[in-house]
Amino acid sequence: MLSAKSLFQEILDNDESFALFCSVAASGETQGGWENARIAALVPEAERELAPKISRHGADEDKHGRIFNALMKKRGLDPVPVPPETDYTMLLEKNGIGLAHARLNRDERLTVQDIVTYLSHSRVTEQRASEQMDLLRKHFADHPGIGRAVKQISNDEDNHLAYCHEELLRFAHAGHGRAIQRTLRECALAEIRIYRDVSLAVMAHMGRILGWSKARSAVLVAGIHAVYAYERMGGWRRMVSLTTPERRNALGGPASAEPEFA
To answer: pLDDT class for 91, splitting at 50, 70, 90?
Structure first.
């Protein structure tokens, strides 16, 4: 039976597909770490109290990149080149989602509107990350090889999502509500399209590595398009709502330690 668990188990059991999966994940997390570090360094003076939380966000993303690399090392695998069509983070940036790297590379203070844009982008992408890790946690929390990593990253992603909700609500109460909702909607509609395209690209590479039949690949492609259709017809709205999170001040402390992979 084709299921999310059986599909990922197949990817996990093959060294080549596992290396690709971890390399794609590590690349995106490391890129997110750099972006957050630059944003923290350029926070406007009026929002300097936010800088430690942004730094913590970036430190978590860097940690996740190291975790995925450690999972490969544990199996004696080396990272592999990330196909550009599977690079979710870079495709978001190229499509104008978030703050442009050209902007972040300048030693010039960001504006409050830039911070609102950053948080709105993060609220959308962290929704995706939280859901994906929750799915892996559901099926693989007790897995001897990846269980600890999955639980750690899942918890961090939930913290990131809570932080985005809390800070965006603060900015909304300060008068930025319309800008936040506009930016959230733009980000969400772009993200679901990019996520579809990246999913199709990743599945194509996995299918080649694992020798999937045309029929099986067609079923997976249809499933990806079905998810996109659902999201395009209204599922995207879950990415733009703002509610007071149960986890308050989720990024108010130091980053948690990463698991050991002996």
So the answer is: very high
